Protein 1
Amino acid sequence: MLTLFHHPFCPHSRFIRLVLEELGQTPRLVEERTWERRQDFLVLNPAGTTPVLVEEGAPPVPGAAVIADGEILGLVLSCRALGMGIEHTFLRHILDELKVISASIRGRIIPTSRNIPVRNLFRDNGFIEAEPGLWECRF
């Protein structure tokens, strides 16, 4: 059973709800008021941000990625979670899963100062900038 801790006004939560709907998944929805800093929720995601997807018997997932045709089209993780190592663990998990089915993965970003954290995340996890804004990781 999937459980999505979300907030109705959070754009990242909306993104996850839409992706799950596209996949035909109907999670149990738990509205999380992050400003209350509930201890039970902080155990799931120490950053205290939504969304967090939990599958029974598996660790919580505090983000999402949309991948199609060997390219990361969307990567959602709260900026408040950056710097806690969650982003590296999240991307490494994605790469580990993709190694089984692909020889490489690409990620595109618009090269601006606002996207420096994503550029650094790609670089620190084995991606090489093939051209401005196009990053590639070969397994």
Note: The helical segments are 11-22, 39-44, 86-99, 116-124.
Protein 2
Amino acid sequence: MPTHKRRPHVPSDVVSPAILETPDALVFQIRFTGEVFSLYDDYIERLNYYRERVWSCSRTGKSNLTFEEALVLERHAIAAVEQFPEYFHEKALRLIHHSTSGAHDAGSRRRAGAGPRWRRRAYGEG
């Protein structure tokens, strides 16, 4: 869930169930959260709040995003983790755990500098 001021944001239930039961009631729904509003002013106020660049992705730590951008980025991060081979889980977690930078930076540095050094060790050259 995207975070605002380091706290996860949980969309609220704004409209009463009685309004939803009326078939011809006019309601306004925010597409990416599913929140439903009976008053247009409340809807616009909440939508503008979600459009502010104050949100962060809780998975990657990237900040200055809109709520929708943070939500999409989290979904992509979750999908990328699910595709990661199980064989590398322990090694990747150790690398990330002992890193002082983010997971992306640690992985990039490791790929850039580790390949030839590992090959030398494997063949007894280093």
Note: The mean pLDDT is 78.
